[in-house]
Amino acid sequence: MYSNREVLGKNATVRRLKSSVTVMTARHPLARLVSAFRDKFADGRKLDKPQSKDHFIYFWSPALKALYRNTNMPLQINFTQFVTFALLHKPHEPHWEPFTKLCSPCDISYQYIIFLDTLTEDLQFLMSALNISTINSKTRDNRGPREGVDPSDDLTLDPDLLQYYLQLPPYLMAKVLHTYTLDIKLLGYQVPEVLNAIAT
Predict the structure, then answer these.
(1) Is the pLDDT of residue 144 over 50?
(2) Where are the domains of the chain?
(3) Are 33 and 96 in contact (CB under 8 A)?
(4) Contacts of 153 (CB under 8 A, 6+ apart)
(5) Max alpha carbon distance in the chain (Å)?
(6) pLDDT tens digits, 79-126
(7) GO molecular function terms here (predicted)?
(8) Which helix (H) or strand (E) holds 26?
């Protein structure tokens, strides 16, 4: 995955941004991290084979190499292992890299920020503000239904997500909160006190 800045170059990106409507889509970073675990590593289930060859090369192989130094291990990791891999070994992966680094909100003055947990309402507002009539505000691309997964997937709405973080050791919980501190503060999200307590 490449950002516009990487594809166009810095100067071309700046020119493009000045003549464009800028929109950033945000999500609670802790919900986003769990979502990546569920989607990329099968929510901790043991797989008989990888989802695809590319998926193995891009996700499973580096994870198994980082965690076990052996890519021939069974295709199964738990959430603690995933967080260790994601934050300590592959922090720049777009599926879990902080928005403050991935989307550069300190460098780009976004005109609109829409939130995944209120996506339908936010898209309706955006359609009205920009006089757009062709967006299906009820469609969420790249997010197929998954059995047992709440579509909202927001930490403040889905207490089930807390269970993932309650199993983390204190040093790793502290790493999670440190990694996403700017995202949480900038976007106005909250962290349950029980997670702050684990990290201290």
Answers:
(1) no
(2) 4-45+81-199
(3) yes
(4) 27, 31, 34, 35, 116, 117, 161
(5) 54
(6) 999 999 999 999 999 999 999 998 888 788 888 888 888 888 888 888
(7) sulfotransferase activity
(8) strand 23-26
